[in-house]
Amino acid sequence: MRRRLGMLISWIAPICWLSFSASIAAQFVPSKPYYTIGVIGRPRDDLFVDWLMRKVNETFGMNITTKTTQLFTANLFAQVDAKAVDFVYTVPTQLSCLMSEFDFTPIATRVAIRQGLPVLEYGSIIYTKKDRDDINTIQDVRGKRILASSITGTGACQIPWQELEKNGISMMMEAGQVLFAGGLQAVADGLRDGYGDVAFGTMTVFDEIENHSASDYKVLGQRYTHPATGEDYPFVVSTDLYPEWTLGAAPWVEPEVFHAIAQTLMMHPDDAIMAETGLAGFVAPVSQTVTRDLQISIGTMSWDPGRKR
Questions:
Q1: How far apart are CA 87 and CA 247, in angstroms?
Q2: For residues 246 and 86, is the Cβ–Cβ distance under 8 A?
Q3: Which backbone phi and psi does 223 adopt, to 5 degrees?
């Protein structure tokens, strides 16, 4: 409780904390030889992590060593149970699970650059090949083969999954088949090669994969306005919007390290490395309540008041 209160105060009074943290940084001794940051596994994520820890050490005079490791959905909980991961830089559905199961605390949420625009939230598309005259609306998905990333995937599974449920379609009961292909590239390749009829992807999926053109596909249930405000939205989406990736910390990470990382992310929004890694900066962590509501609505998370870890 004291640790959580300290984190809350740091966001309310960052200037006071900055001078305080600088005064204690020189006295801080890490409790372990290095901290492990789990990432999805793209090279530019490793580049971002390297930059972050270099800035932390330069800014606060600390001597923190880190290494990165790839996060795998299949053994994510086992990694955390073994304390093999101290931080995660990941999608909202994974972070939401870690917050519920392991008391992870969000540090900061990224502002990503998508199609040249800074975005703090993102949605998904439900798409099919342009020549599928039998598939034109979300209702036409019923009985069709669906290609998704993995059952815990955010943009290419759980967000569009919820959209089907909102339209009265049970993905697990009414789809002809649900195929989990892996990543965005594998999902799109599978659709192109005839292994599925409909695919799930992020709203900028065709910027994130190779050998596919948006002109060869059509988006089902497409919207051109922000789902919450009704204002014009620069991206085509089939779904509601959810928080961008967030950096989170395990409960055993010392407050000194937590706050040094948080302050570093707030202090260097214009650093060249941000643009190189597809980022416009970071903000105080965005609430994951909408993510948790999504997971409860589709049944990948349930409320168990008697559960204790």
A1: 7
A2: no
A3: -125, 150
Q: What is the pLDDT of residue 17?
A: 46
| Nearest C-alpha neighbor of 221 from the set 205, 195, 194, 200 | 200
> How does the average pLDDT of the chain come out, rounded?
86
Residue 2: predicted pLDDT: 38
CB 237 within 8 A of CB 222: yes
Give the three-state DSSP class for 52.
helix
CA–CA separation, 268 vs 8, rounded Å?
21
Q: Is 289 exposed, middle or buried (0-12, 13-18, 19+ CB in 10 A)?
A: exposed
> In the structure encoding, which two tokens stand for residue 37, read together?
């940051």
pLDDT at 251: 96
119 in helix, strand or coil? strand
CB 234 within 8 A of CB 115: yes
In this predicted structure, the answer to whether residue 108 has a pLDDT above a threshold of 90 is: yes
Please return the burial class of 73, using the count of CB atoms within 10 Å of its CB with bins 0-12, 13-18 and 19+: middle
**Residue positions counted in the chain:** 309
- Please report where in the chains the tokens 């392991």 appear, as a residue: 102
Query: How much is the CA Rg of the chain, to the nearest whole Å?
Result: 20
Q: What angle do CA 86, 121, 10 make, to 5 degrees?
A: 50
CB 127 within 8 A of CB 201: yes
Residue 142 · residue 220 · CB < 8 Å: no
Per-residue pLDDT tens digits for 20-53:
455 555 677 888 888 999 887 666 777 888 888 8
pLDDT band of residue 5 (cuts 50, 70, 90) is very low
Which uninterrupted H or E stretch holds 22?
helix 14-25
pTM of the model: 0.85
Write down the pLDDT at residue 51.
Answer: 87
